[in-house]
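Subgroup meeting minutes
Present: P.N., E.W., G.H.
Scribe: E.W.

1. P.N. recapped why we're keeping a running log of single-chain structure predictions: easier to compare across weeks, and new members can see raw inputs and outputs side by side.
2. G.H. added today's entry (249 aa).
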Amino acid sequence: MSSPMLEIKNLKKVYGTGKDAKVAVDDLSLTVERGAFFGLLGPNGAGKSTTIHCITGIAQPTEGQIFIDGVDVVKDYKTARRKVGLSPQEFNIDFFAKVDDLLDYMGGYYGIPRAERKTRIDELISRFSLEEHRDKKFQKLSGGLKRRAILARALVHTPDLLILDEPTAGVDVEQRHELWDYLRELNSRGKTIILTSHYLEEIQELCNEIAIINHGKIIKEGTKAEFMRDGKSVEQTYLEITRNDDKKA
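Output recorded in log:
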């Protein structure tokens, strides 16, 4: 039996020490099966970004274990990192670099041979309709084009797991729907996708599994059908659960 695409066991992340210590994630366990389109929800400061940072190696777990396709992200960082692509909410990028160069650098980082890298970049440039923008500096792109370039960069090395942190922030409605179609296509071909978004209709539209983080803990997890029981929308269920949890805190 194959392992899940992502398995988080009792993750805890603490920033700072002593009286200044802040627990960002507290004993969080989560499993994402391969091929899932998984929605990760939570208010600002709930622990979503910290969890993603621990998955991708940006942050080190204080306690617990994380496995990507059975590979320990701490003990075998290089292998695990190759299996995941991250499209971050913030643009952690050289704003003065050309789109083509950004993709080429990322392909080189993952050791993709030059000829293969060029073919892959041409495919992504075409797929995201970036042909006329490939020689432009990133800072000169519109918000929607920036998002497309960042997503293309995350896909250069053909990762097994794709993590999208607010991928349509600042994107207009038409481009958002184009992006949705592409993500559905990726998922239908077997790509495992984790999506975080404040657009709850986006989660409802795309995801088949959903979890809510609040105060560093998973407070609900289930299928989209379970979140939409009794005629509720995902947004209605989300608000009900988070508000009740805040009252207990």
